[in-house]
Amino acid sequence: MSTGELSEGEIVDSDGEQVLDPSQGPVDGLEDLFDKPVKIIPLPEHVQVKTGEENEQALFEGRNKRGHRVQPLFEHRIWNCYDVTLHCLPRTNNGLEALNNAFKISVGITHPTFSTFMNRLVDKHAKICYDIMQPEREVSLTKNEVYLIDVVRSYDRYANF
């Protein structure tokens, strides 16, 4: 019999050798499977396998040791708040929620018609454009925001040292 043709109930391995004989019971033929060598497929070169100790060391590096700060496990540049903190932008969407609430109040109608909605939208857009064109006033930062900006800048100095 060629390896391309299989009879019903016949199980073969990758070399085409019969693995289980259907005439044997369902469990009797399994013992022979454990005696055969197993083919191990090598991992690609770019896959790095870490042992338990290496993995544990990678996880716990960068933590505080005896009160000293060490480099963090992940760079601040990959955090979403990195650029936001440097440019003093809000870290939440509360401003957008407030704008949506203000627009809802300015329309003053629970279910406005399309024309009413568009008229109010155009008026609101004109007011927002006017407010944007005004010169920016001095921004007062909270102590927490100043602290976060200092932490990010000190990390940059530490990383580029």
From TrEMBL:
Sequence ranges of Acidic residues compositional bias: 7-18
Region entry Disordered, spans: 1-25
Protein name, per record: Transposase
Organism: Acrobeloides nanus
